[in-house]
User: Fold this.
Amino acid sequence: MKKTSIYLLYYLAYFLLLYGFHKFIISTYSYEGYEWNYNKVKLWESLIILSIILSFIPKVFNKPSDILLHIQLLLPILPMLVLYGASDKPREYIYYTIVSFFILMLIVRYLDFKLLAMPKISSKIIGRILLVMGGLYILSIITFGGLKYLNFDLKKVYEFRSISASNLPTIFGYFSPIVSKVFLPFLLIISIVNKSKTFICISIAFSILAFGMTHHKGTLFYPFLAMGLYYIFTMKNVIPMMIIAYLSIIVISLLIYMINESNIFFGSLLLRRVYFVPAQINYFYYDYFSLNSFILWAESKLTLGLIDYQYPLSMPRMIGLEYFGNEITNANTGWIGSGYAQAGLIGMIIYSVIIGIIFNTLNIFSKRVNKNIILPITIVPVFSVMTSSDLPTAFLTHGLILVLILVSILAVKPQYFYKTIPRYKN
Assistant:
């Protein structure tokens, strides 16, 4: 019955996304390149592809990769399948995407390896260190005049973001994502686990203040996303519940819009920005780099400067200029789009193998620290790889390698993790 419900929920999600795309996205945001070019054959084809994926994807939450594979399917692959049928998107690219996703699933299922033992540090000590780091970050922004541009209105963030960023040293462009995506969510979750109300309140206050002074929405939402996942993962039937939450966002966005068509804020923030923008940008990357030279990691230090970068702007800004008409628009995307931009299908396959290894690493960690804790504290940088960051950038700038190190040294008290929830066993 549980397997059947997962199939039905995914089909419902597909058709709700299709309806939302036609009713809301096309009506409101067609100027961003969205188009209704319905292809009946591709619609049925996309449903068959979805059915094949569902026959292989895990249906029960036993280890972190089970949830991460569903998140990857929900964002952005399912919206990509919707766009494939609704906008007559390229067949070649959607099959590249599906092949890469299947390779990812195979790596997760069959690759087995061991990690070197790392020294362990108490979660309370790590919490205090992160608290100090977060406090120093907030104080440093205040020192550079951050309070002058304090704003908590989500609708005005773009008015203040560039001004506040110009007043901060360049290093904050590297440090801020690590604080917002790693330090503060990590601090909040281990504070909840350690039942420290003081640290919980301080971590939330830091997130709100950091958002108010840097004007990045993610800084405000990431800790609450981690906290919400922490409680969802303690429930029964986690995967169906997660899909229901996904469906709820679509339904609420559409209901608000249908009640008052001038109220597009919620639909824009979630239905458009979270669901369809990453999917659309992936297709933009394919459209552009199928006609132009691949980057071959020329922008990255991985190539040691041996490969010349052929474009006048960075990869995201080239797409921003080409498809949004603005060279300062950073049209970032996850591994599906950036992998293709780097080396076509080969780049996507390389990335899928690396991400599979990352997922398996989290599975190994979950044998020591419960999976219900591993996922919330790692989800934000992992999610960046899925939807908004090239893989090398995610490792360094978005804190993926740092969060993996923190998890590897995290020491927890068994009663906090294993009393009610059993460990994953091979």
